[in-house]
Design brief:
Layout: H1 17-43, H2 46-52, H3 57-63, H4 67-90, H5 96-108, H6 112-124, H7 133-156, H8 166-186, H9 193-204
Helix pairs in contact: 1-2, 1-4, 1-6, 4-5, 5-9, 6-8, 7-8, 8-9
């Protein structure tokens, strides 16, 4: 009597403890990203995040000991994913930095969940006691400083207008990007975020 084994009947190798831990953490981070994006840090509930990740709240706290800790891990993970893209932008010479910023805005238009997470948490962090306040203060200072340096080089090369200081242009570029994101999140069908940012960049380039 022959026995036919189906692929589904074959015993799958058991995952190691580290693999199971990593998978659980990834599920938690993904669920937390969605809840923080929708409800903000204050409104998100650990019990609901745990349930969405297929865990109990104590199970979640085994991986992330507090809500504050979970928030910072979500922010660190988002920055880790985006860091190469940001580094590529800031390493550009001349006015190519503007082209890279435009490419970043185009990319952001494809990931509304991440944009919403950033926008909601930045707004919440304006409150001094918010756990992410220092994270965003340092993030803006660091990226703005690097952007100003790139703009200054492009100004010396005559590729970006020189009648406005590099420091002011750096502030304006971030202000326009952030402001467009808010309007786009509220009315995505009416606001063409990449097109509007592209028009602003033409005002920044040297004529």
């Amino acid at each position: 009597m022959s026995i036919i084994y189906c692929v589904s009947e074959l015993k799958r190798p058991r995952r190691t403890q580290s693999e199971r831990t990593r998978a659980s953490r990834e599920k938690i981070l993904q669920a937390a990203l969605e809840f923080f994006s929708r409800d903000g840090f204050r409104g998100a509930k650990l019990s609901e995040i745990a349930q969405a990740a297929g865990l109990t709240e104590p199970g979640l706290l085994h991986h992330f000991p507090s809500k504050n800790h979970l928030l910072m891990q979500v922010l660190d993970e988002r920055d880790r994913v985006n860091q190469k893209r940001i580094n590529d932008i800031l390493s550009q010479e001349g006015s190519h930095v503007l082209d890279s910023l435009h490419a970043l805005v185009k990319h952001n238009a494809t990931v509304p969940g991440l944009v919403q997470l950033f926008t909601v948490l930045v707004a919440e962090s304006l409150v001094p006691e918010h756990p992410a306040r220092e994270f965003f203060v340092q993030r803006y200072q660091r990226t703005r400083s690097n952007l100003v340096e790139a703009i200054a080089k492009a100004q010396k090369a005559g590729e970006i207008r020189q009648d406005i200081s590099a420091e002011v242009l750096g502030v304006l570029l971030f202000a326009v990007m952030d402001g467009l994101q808010v309007q786009w999140l509220l009315q995505p069908e009416q606001i063409d975020m990449p097109a509007a940012f592209g028009l602003f960049l033409e005002l920044v380039r040297a004529k």
